[in-house]
Amino acid sequence: MTPTLVRHHLRQSGSPGSYGSIAPADPCTRARDWAEIQERMLVPLYEAVYDRMDVGPHTKLLGLGCGSGLALLIAAARGAQVCGVDLDEQRLDLARERLAPDPAREARASATRATVLACGGPERTADPGGGAFNIVTAFHPVGCVSSIEGLTASLVTAAGLTERGSPVVLGGWGPVERCATASVLRVAQRLADPLRTAGGWRPSGRDDLEELAGRVGLRPDGSGRVACPFGYGDLPSAVRGLLSTGLFDAALEVTDQAQVEKELSEALHPHQRPDGTVWMPNVFRYLIART
């Protein structure tokens, strides 16, 4: 996949007016909402990390919570060998479509590590030939596992599949005061009470990523912040995109979808522009840790 084709994927995603109404979504529809509307919002984060880590033909990358594969696609366009895991089979089906082997990548893979996209944990990507990854990314921890314990276990396993001293990159929300979407996600937090199940949203702590790295036995080795604005063609697209993240799942367990959509739409109104588009500036953070 060339960089030009990657840009084509981005242009085709979430175009204004492409979603006229909001309706309850089955898992396949929600996975496509994620791929076509929401996943692209973190492209600046992916690019910043890949630039800093010099991702290219020498890279063997394992993506945890890889979703529908956009971050992997961008890495592959830089020449990297990529593998990914997620717990959402519908998203993985879309990732397989995006990362269907082209002749050039297939030739490179035959000499190194073939692309694996697996539903489950990172152990599903272990190479019988003994080849090791040299970078692990966890851009979407919530999309990969449903609890901090599960994420910790996945990171421990992934670290064991890497070359010694390899970077593990953890992504997360930046300071609440610099994330306009935080006010919208508080709807998910409020509606989920008192259940407060795993997978919902909570404000990020200053040292969340460092604490997670410490639990896994990783050594912090730098961090950064990246502007990742959330922009949508219209209000229905914004609602569908945000619902596709899974951050509202806990709220949907304790109230009906219509109520969640109503309150989410109301929370989005202050961010709607006169032309109908929705725009929310955000800052995301990443931590580089070493195995």
From TrEMBL:
Transmembrane segments: none annotated. GO terms for molecular function: methyltransferase activity. One of its GO terms (biological process) is methylation. Residues 1-24 are annotated as: Disordered. Keywords: Methyltransferase, Transferase. It holds the Pfam family Methyltransf_25. Residues 62-114 form the Methyltransferase domain. This is Methyltransferase domain protein. InterPro entries: Methyltransf_25 (IPR041698), SAM-dependent_MTases_sf (IPR029063). Residues 1-11 have a biased composition (Basic residues). It comes from the Bacteria.
